[in-house]
Each structure stands twice: as C-alpha cells, then as structure tokens.
Specification:
The chain has about 80 residues and is mainly β. The chain has no helices and seven strands. The two termini are about 15 Å apart.
C-alpha cells in the first residue's frame, strides 16, 4: 500500500496492490475526513505485490508504480 495525494486535491489517497491472480491495483481517493470515494481499479501485471508513489516522469504530478512478482516487471500509471 502507498499513500499520497494522487489527484492533487490536497487530500491523502491510497493505492493498494491486489495480490494473487487479480492482477489489479486499486486507488481510493480520500475525502479528507478519513473516508474514501468508491474504489477504482486498473489492470497491471501478474501478481502485483508492492506500490510506490512518485513523480516518475518529471511532470510535477504524482504517478503510481506497481511491482508485479510473477513477471518480474513494474507497471507505471502516469498521473495514476
């Protein structure tokens, strides 16, 4: 799980790798009061295990990286 302001609204959001054979990562956008909006999921590589948030392409906006254990690969979602 990784925590950061993924959509630039000043509120913390969660990114969660859905391990096993689901091959997805879920993002929960924070409401700023400890609750979250409905989960949104994206397909990534096989057996995602770890997530990291950072500005990987240098555009000033946060991106999401997901380590996929079965493929020894990393999926990058630019501006999540």
């Amino acid at each position: 799980m990784a925590i950061g302001d993924l959509n630039g609204d000043g509120k913390l959001d969660l990114a969660v790798a859905n391990g096993g054979n689901r091959s997805t990562v879920s993002v929960l956008l924070g409401n700023g009061d400890g609750t979250f909006q409905a989960v949104v999921s994206w397909s990534v590589g096989a057996f995602p295990r770890q997530t990291a948030i950072g500005d990987f392409n240098g555009d000033g906006r946060l991106d999401l990286a997901v380590a996929n254990s079965n493929e020894s690969s990393v999926s990058i979602l630019l501006h999540y």
